[in-house]
Amino acid sequence: CRKRKLNAILNLEEDVCNLQTQKESLKKEHSQCSRSISRMKQKLNNLYRDIFSRLRDDQGRPVNPCQYVIHCSSDGSVFIIPKHLVKSEQKQDNEKE
């Protein structure tokens, strides 16, 4: 009985050690993923600003990024849509769901 108990304790200690190693590995992976997401968000923001800095309306004035959003459809088309239309579409989609 003692031998089985000691073996069980040793197995549990080994499991704890393995889980701690796995936890550290997952923490590192999470940290790397978070950094990667932050970099991608920054790149997306830079791209968004760059696109809006080049856009002009019919009178040649810059398009205000506070009033419009960039919408990419599933077929690859890109549209500039007024924000108030996007919000109403989202409400309709949420109501349908």
From TrEMBL:
Q: Which residues form a coiled coil?
A: none
Q: Known InterPro entries for this protein?
A: NFE2-like
Q: Where are the transmembrane segments?
A: none
Query: GO CC terms for this protein?
Result: nucleus
GO molecular function terms listed in the Swiss-Prot or TrEMBL record: DNA-binding transcription factor activity, RNA polymerase II-specific; RNA polymerase II cis-regulatory region sequence-specific DNA binding
Task: Output this protein's name.
Answer: NF2L3 factor
Organism from which the protein derives: Fregata magnificens (Magnificent frigatebird)
The beginning of the lineage is: Eukaryota, Metazoa, Chordata, Craniata, Vertebrata
| Encoding gene, per UniProt annotation | Nfe2l3
